[in-house]
Amino acid sequence: MKKRGIDISYHQGNIDFSKLKGNIDFAMVRTSYGHFTEDSKYKEYVKGLESAGIPYGFYHFSYATTTQEAKEEANGFINIIKNYKPLYPVAIDVETSSVTEDVRADDLVDIVKTFCQMLEDAGYYVSIYANLSYLNGKLNSSELDDYDKWLAQWTSAPTYSKPFGMWQYSSKGSVPGINGNVDLDIAYKDYPSIIKANNLNNYKESESNNDDTSNENDSEYINYVVKKGDTLSEIASKYNTTYQKLASYNNISDPNKIYTGQIIKIPGSSSINPTTYVVKKGDTLSGIASKYGTTWQKLYEKNKSVIGSNPDKIYPGQILTL
Fold first, then answer.
1. Domain map (residue ranges) of the chain
2. Which CATH class is domain 3-189?
3. How far apart are CA 46 and CA 41, in angstroms?
4. Is this prediction's pTM over 0.90?
5. Cα distance between residue 214 and residue 249, in whole Å
């Protein structure tokens, strides 16, 4: 699954969002920078994106040089985004600036970890934006491996060796509705499904349920991860339901468009043994293992490539094979 996106700040000026619709799948909006200045255009941009039906995420350009400043920036960021329901990540933008260029690597890792932990504790899907040099250098720490990455590398193909969810591949893109250059991005994860499934980013699952599904017991469903070649009708047939019900339950506007890696909730299927599990906030590997009649060791062996080197660290949105 690949989604086309852009990231925008006040530098993009006035945007015609009606022209953007159909040309991008999502946008990342800068809300703020430093400690603490709001982007003068973010409210206007969010309103335009919502009116055009384009999902979005947020990012904050950090100037923090200490963990205390990171806490102040995180609090300011949370205070802004608490009024919205972004279906893409909320990110800390870590770049070299005249303020931060001399921050030591170990201090920068502590700063970023502090910021991310505060956002995660507040119930958000967090990502770290940085260029390849930073990710391979100052930020190349196992302490940050559990957080999603938004790679900035303006080349024909990414070369970052660790997992990442988004790639900013150009700073000189062009899209209808924006005058001048704009950053172009690709998202490799089905962020809206992950965020909805885990009730992150101020999203509440009940908000997507219409009258036909409001009586469903939310504990009675399984998560199905779409595979290449799947169709919604075939998935529905497999679980003795209809594609219309699945589309409604999962807030899918076009039943003919589902994507590899997308998470489809199958309502009323608690009696069916699932093959995958989407990690939720507060989960532990031993708790998941106990729920499905296995051991954390066996679960870890199956999912080392997803979890990484530390079985005690799993995070919301990870898809585990059972």
1. 3-189, 196-321
2. alpha beta
3. 9
4. no
5. 9
Class of domain 196-321: alpha beta
* pLDDT tens for each residue of the chain, 322 residues long: 689 999 999 999 999 999 999 999 999 999 999 989 999 999 999 999 999 999 999 999 999 999 999 999 999 999 999 999 999 999 999 998 878 888 999 999 999 999 999 999 999 999 999 999 999 999 999 999 989 999 999 999 999 999 999 999 999 999 999 999 999 999 999 999 889 888 899 987 545 444 333 333 444 567 787 888 889 989 888 888 888 888 888 778 788 888 776 778 887 655 556 677 878 778 899 989 888 888 999 999 998 888 888 888 887 777 788 8
Residue written as tokens 């973010």? 42
